[in-house]
Amino acid sequence: MGCCSTFQFRDIVQILPNQYYLCAFIMATLLQRSMSISPLFTKSYLFLFVLLLLLALSSVYVPQVLGEDPGTALAAWQSMLKGSPFNTITTPDHQDLSRSNYLFLTWWTPGHYLLPGYLSQMGISLATASLILTVLFSVLGLLGWYKVYQQLEVGAKWIAFCLIMIASSRLFTINFINYTGGELLIFGGQPWSIYVFLRWRHKPLLLFINLLLISLFCFFLKSSYTIGLAAIGGCAGLFFLQNWRNVENRKRDFMSVIAVFCCCIVYFAVTKWGFLKLGADPTSSQGGFSLNLNSYELLNYPLLQWFNIVDLHQLLPRYINWDNLVVLYHFVSILGILSLWYIVWKAPQSHLKTIFLGFSLIYFIIFLYFFNTGADISLEYRHLKILAYLFLPLLCQYIAKFPNIAKIVVVVFWVANTIYGLSVYFLKKREVHQDYVVGKSGYALRHLNQSDLDFIHAKDDPKHPEQIWFFLPASLNVEVENGRKILSGFSFQSSKMGNFVHDTYGSKSEKIYCVLHRLSSHHFNVKSMFPKYRFKIVKSSPEMLIYEGQ
Q1: What is the distance between the alpha carbons of residues 127 and 59, in angstroms, rounded to a whole number?
Q2: Is the pLDDT of residue 508 over 90?
């Protein structure tokens, strides 16, 4: 049954005047006033506003899908509503299921569940709150990049072009398909940290105070922002080295380095000892250094992200049976690396070039280290998209050197990026509309059908809060308001590293319901995990198996 079977248009009509019209007004006001748009470029920003409005309104009609990471984190919000300590998930003790433990959540910082959680206290669903945050942080991010590009002295026409490229790209539109939590929020926060550095680089005290405040806020949004702060430190160091021969500038930039260094010390002390040390390390390595040759691909991401090469590499084999497709992909990847650094080499010395080099140096070193030491982190565009946003104006500068073909290249570049980003967006929305169901939380839920969801709601008995629910995928847990939860991602090893699951669970409690995806059910032998229980399949559907243990 399609997701619109549970869609209540009456509820949307009641919400629209108070929430979505407000979002539209905020988008229009911020984009118009904060960007100081000249009449010459009104059409460009009007396109940007219409695009954002289209993405927002389509997500009212077809709700966002709940992603795995925020879906897991929302269990902490639900536990806190029931009285558990801050940022903890109430989970059964693996040695005695009749008792409960509190799992302090450090794999994700609290922003992506606290913000929609507190917003939902206004009387709206979690999904509605998430959509409002998606709109606001999308606008906030675009405004942040506008300010950054201004500080880097990018031309007004190129700023408009860059913002439209960002907003029509696949990595931006996906936030309106899924509620991506920290990925969305950090998009809205991180560019402002770069702006703060550029704005107060020559005023050490103001730089320290403002950079520390925005950095702690960005950590609250997503913990991986720590890499971004380290990159700002790398940029400060590069500015200092560039001005080594000029005594006056050297002293000034040295004070900037000291201010950023002091900020990093305080930041690391607060985040490490005040948060990360309280739970499992989300970047734990699974072994020593082992070279992963495919990790070289991330070196081309700042350029080839705009051509969606990785997406196409994964998509084309479904339709094209060609043995040399992998060879072609690696050829294009190497060509992308060479083209990228040729453009950087040809770019004149500027703050833009220095910032890009500083961020690239830190991000490439850190992520190459992660990927080659077995850390539980994926090799994806999204981790390095900030490099693409910094490289884009460098690419524009290079294109502008060829005025005879610049307009043609820009139009082709924009059309290709926009068509891909929006066509994938609407195709995915169509899939969600047809194949997904909407739960009580208001999110569209993948994998489940309506009968699965009805079964979960029927068994979620408030008279038996000690019942245990084991979910894979973890995002489905938001549909259980009572009972305790054991949550796992598709990787059992990663889930164990985060202390979300254990190999075995001892003693007994009340009934256990295991909601497992068929593709991963062979990783989870519920009989060996819960040896004191007898299990039977009580619900079977094309994608899910639901076990009951007594």
Answers
A1: 10
A2: no
Instruction: Check: CB of residue 102 under 8 Å from CB of residue 89.
Output: yes
Q: For residues 147, 340, 342 and 403, what is the CA-based torsion angle, rounded to 10 degrees? A: -60
Evaluate if residue 521 carries a pLDDT over 60: yes
**Do the beta carbons of residue 446 and residue 434 sit within 8 Å?**
no
Rounded Cα gap, residues 168 and 426, in angstroms? 12
């068994």: which residue's tokens? Answer: 459
pLDDT tens-digit readout, 431-480 = 999 999 999 999 999 888 899 999 999 988 888 777 889 988 888 999 99
Q: Which two tokens stand for residue 227?
A: 């890499």
Question: For residue 91, what are its two tokens?
Answer: 């989970």
Closest CA to 491 of 377, 414, 405, 331: 377
Residues 236-283: pLDDT tens digits? Answer: 999 999 888 777 778 888 999 999 999 999 999 999 999 988 887 666
What local confidence, expressed as pLDDT, does residue 384 receive? 87
* Rg, the chain, Cα only: 24
Mean pLDDT taken over the chain: 84
Name, of 16-30, 40-54, 214-228, the range with top average pLDDT: 214-228
Strand order in the sheet with 444-445: 178-179, 65-66, 444-445, 437-438
Q: Does residue 398 form part of some domain?
A: no
pLDDT in tens, 345-373: 999 989 999 999 999 999 998 888 877 77
Domain count within the chain: 2
Q: Range of 488's domain?
A: 90-105+448-549
CA–CA distance, 103 with 20 (Å, rounded to integer): 36
Domain boundary among 446, 461, 495: 446
Contact 509, 98 (CB under 8 A): yes
Q: Does the residue 8 lie in any domain?
A: yes
Best CA proximity match to 439, nearest among 15, 20, 74, 23 = 74
- Within this chain, do residues 4 and 62 fall inside the same structural domain, yes or no? yes
76/73 Cα distance (integer angstroms): 5
Q: Calculate the alpha carbon distances from 440 to 3, 194, 460, 542 in Å.
A: 12, 39, 12, 22
Same domain flag for 156 and 172: yes
Residue 414 domain-assigned (yes or no)? yes
State mean pLDDT over 36-57.
74
CA 35 – CA 159 distance, rounded (Å):
10
Alpha helices by DSSP H, listed for 17-155, are 20-29, 42-61, 68-81, 111-120, 126-151
Let me know if 538 is exposed, middle or buried by CB neighbors in 10 A (0-12, 13-18, 19+).
Answer: middle
pTM: 0.88
pLDDT tens-digit series, residues 142-163: 999 999 999 999 998 899 899 9
Residues in Cβ contact with 9 at an 8 Å cutoff, skipping those fewer than 6 apart? none
Query: In this structure, are 129 and 14 located in the same domain?
Result: yes
pLDDT of residue 376: 57
